[in-house]
Amino acid sequence: MAIQLGDVAPDFTADTTEGSVSLHEYLGDGWGILFSHPADFTPVCTTELGAFATRKDEFTKRNAKIIGVSVDTVESHNGWSADIAETQGTALNYPLIGDPERTVANLYGMIHPNAIATATVRTVFVIAPDKTVRLTLTYPASVGRNIDEILRVLDALQLGAEFPVSTPVDWTDGSDVIISPAINDEDANEKFPKGFTTLKPYLRLTPQPNR
Ligand code: BEZ
Predict the structure, then answer these.
(1) In angstroms, what is the span from residue 120 Cα to ligand 1's centroid?
(2) CATH fold of 13-145, please?
(3) Were 40 and a residue from 67, 72, 99, 146 both cysteine, which residue would form a disulfide, CB within 3.0 to 4.6 Å?
């Protein structure tokens, strides 16, 4: 069965461009982004993996580690890294799993045979410090992902882990958030000293509490 939100992210040990990596150990007590791409030496993937490398600091700032996977070999990844550096400005600077046996790809259901039979599609798994999966994304080979969206979701998940809030449509870091309907007004006054606006009893907005 496909991995669902709330499931424990399956652990594995795999060969990567940074040596053997065990997922849970690698993530430690921080957040994790496990993502797959279809193939090395392909155009969209080159832009995506370059962007993850260029923006790695933004994940680190959020206490999140990134790790990629495809069914190519580690040797292939290492060769491709020079092209990524040349065309995107930054070489691979995070572990990229070589998975020619498809062990990780099958464990995470990253191969969608009716889309691409022989390679992983573009998946993203956001993993919380307790190792549960908090978000999954699946994109086709023809559409590159949006790093801003992955960071935005990470911000929202981390905020929700710290405060009883959720984030409205198109929320970005710094905007108002929604107070959990499970919190009554009295408790909301205490927890959110900046105050809140009640649009409906179930829809109360408050300034982002960690700002
Ligand atoms: C790409 O990265 O451009 C790509 C990879 C695999 C299939 C199709 C496109």
Answers:
(1) 10
(2) Glutaredoxin (3.40.30)
(3) 72
